[in-house]
Amino acid sequence: MQTPYYAVIFTSIKKENAEGYAEMAERMVELAHQQPGFLGVESARQEIGITVSYWKSLEAIKQWKQNAEHLVAQQLGKTKWYESYKVRICQVVMSYEL
Amino acid sequence: MQTPYYAVIFTSIKKENAEGYAEMAERMVELAHQQPGFLGVESARQEIGITVSYWKSLEAIKQWKQNAEHLVAQQLGKTKWYESYKVRICQVVMSYEL
Q1: Between A42, A91, A97, which is nearest B93 by CB?
Q2: Are A7 and B94 inside 8 Å of each other by CB?
């Protein structure tokens, strides 16, 4: 991935009883892979969950947010699964690795 | 936190035997809190580790990268603890939450 590209940092605290969450999370990753402009996704959860997805453009992020099936998941997230969450839209300006 | 501010997305895969890692990771969080321009940090690890730290400016990130004790940790990370890692420096342009 060549900079600049975009990242969505999604941090969340799940409710104790989040029935149906795991299946939906898996489905959303699968669905994201099919979106135009999708570059990748990384995820880990302990006390909090952090999912970072990477995108070619802000437009691609906007399209993903409006994906019909994703809209259903977002609604369930708000009402059923998450105690709280935060979404940060970022421009990746530099990267390096080992 | 009002946008724009900055995020460092640090993703890593640890080696199986990463002796001394947990103590150092804890110390780095403590140390980061004392750095000028530090806004916060969030962390989770499963197959991969994701740590996102938040900063007021690119200059604050640069200063943190050059912190003497942090330089020692970075060197140990490279040689001893990490199988691989990636650092992404980002400008947070928008955020919303539940």
Answers
A1: A91
A2: no
Q: How close A19 comes to chain B (CA, Å)?
A: 19
Q: Which residues pair with A44 in a beta bridge?
A: A50
CB of B34 within 8 Å of a chain A CB? The answer is: no
- Over the stretch A37-92, which tens digit does the pLDDT of each residue have? 999 999 999 999 999 999 999 999 999 999 999 999 999 999 999 999 999 999 99
pLDDT in tens, A5-25: 999 999 999 999 889 999 999
Q: What angle do CA A35, A36, A38 make, to 5 degrees?
A: 70
Tell me the two tokens of residue A98.
Answer: 């080992």
Question: Sign of the C-alpha dihedral, residues B45, B58, A95, B78?
Answer: negative
Pairing state between β A38-45 and A49-55: antiparallel
Picking from B53, B80, B55, B62, the residue whose alpha carbon sits closest to that of residue A98 is: B80
